[in-house]
Specification:
The protein folds into 2 domains: 3-93 and 238-251, Probable inorganic polyphosphate/atp-NAD kinase, domain 1 (Rossmann fold), CATH 3.40.50.10330; 100-229, Sandwich (Tumour Suppressor Smad4). Helices cover 18% and strands 39% of the residues. It is built from 5 helices and 17 strands. The chain has helices spanning 16-28, 46-55, 81-90, 155-158, 243-251, and strands at 3-8, 32-33, 39-44, 60-66, 76-77, 94-104, 109-112, 115-119, 125-131, 134-141, 143-147, 170-175, 189-192, 198-202, 209-212, 215-216, 223-237. Strands 1, 2, 3, 4, 5, 6, 7, 9, 10, 14 and 17 form an 11-stranded mixed β-sheet that branches.
Length: 253
């Protein structure tokens, strides 16, 4: 791994001291800047990391230096540049693999690192969900959210979904399903396998929105296929790492 690129949050542009310090150290170690880098160093927050992964077509090796707020996936804080340089000199790297999910409407394909949302803020949707071709349910709800393990700590967690570790499977969460004498959804959250393919059909209206990682996806379809993608990327770790410590840091401290 001898080529790199630095991806900088718009909020961080103008603060060049840290960037030049990183570049100088990497160049000294024999790394070269490249448009097709082995390593993408992201300076920003978790949102900047999402943008970087998307801009590099959901593939590559990424290391986040947090200059944002939470920095759930950060390997270093912005005031730890010297520690980052010491650690990269050691050459000890490990890789945490993740896969995107994809949404297909028959003509177009969209990808998401965190989640895919189909929903409406103004109308209750009648949502049909099939898994691997078999009917699971039809229920009225404000929408449906499909999240990767990578994204399970975001919107899905706010909906009461499970925090997922590793990269196996993905998660379904319903948005405000109706519960009354006539309608009662037996599923509000469900963990799916890597191989599971979802078919989602909206029966009663075209007045809904689709968002992939909170970016609008424009489609005229009412039928969608959602599955794990073959596109994969890695988070790079230069120091000992375990997912449970990361979860504790973000949610328990």
């Amino acid at each position: 791994m001898k080529t790199y690129s630095i991806y900088i949050s718009k909020l961080f542009i103008g603060r060049t001291e840290e960037v030049e310090k990183i570049k100088s150290a990497l160049n000294y170690l024999g790394y070269k800047e490249s448009n097709e880098p082995d390593l993408v160093i992201v300076i920003g927050g978790d949102g900047s990391l999402l943008h970087a992964i998307r801009d590099y077509d959901y593939s590559g090796n990424f290391l986040l230096i947090n200059a944002g707020t939470l920095g759930h996936y950060a390997e270093y804080e912005i005031d730890e540049i010297d520690l980052f340089i010491d650690d990269i000199k050691s050459g000890n790297m490990s890789f945490e693999k993740h896969r995107a999910i994809e949404l297909i409407d028959g003509k177009q394909v969209w990808y998401a690192v965190n989640d895919i949302m189909i929903g409406s803020a103004i109308k209750t949707l009648h949502i049909e969900v099939r898994i691997n071709g078999k009917m699971l349910f039809i229920t009225p709800a404000s929408g449906i959210l499909l999240s990767t393990p990578f994204g399970s700590s975001g919107y899905a967690h706010s909906l009461g979904g499970s925090l997922m570790t590793g990269d196996s499977g993905y998660e379904l969460n319903m948005l405000a399903p109706l519960h009354n004498a006539k309608y009662h959804s037996f599923i509000s959250s469900l963990i799916l396998n890597d191989e599971d393919i979802l078919d989602v059909n909206i029966h009663n209206t075209r007045l809904f929105e689709i968002a992939c990682d909170m970016n609008t996806c424009k489609s005229k379809s009412i039928s969608f296929k959602i599955k794990k993608s073959s596109k994969e990327f890695n988070l790079v770790h230069l120091k000992p790492f375990d997912e449970y410590s990361r979860l504790k840091k973000s949610f328990a401290n």
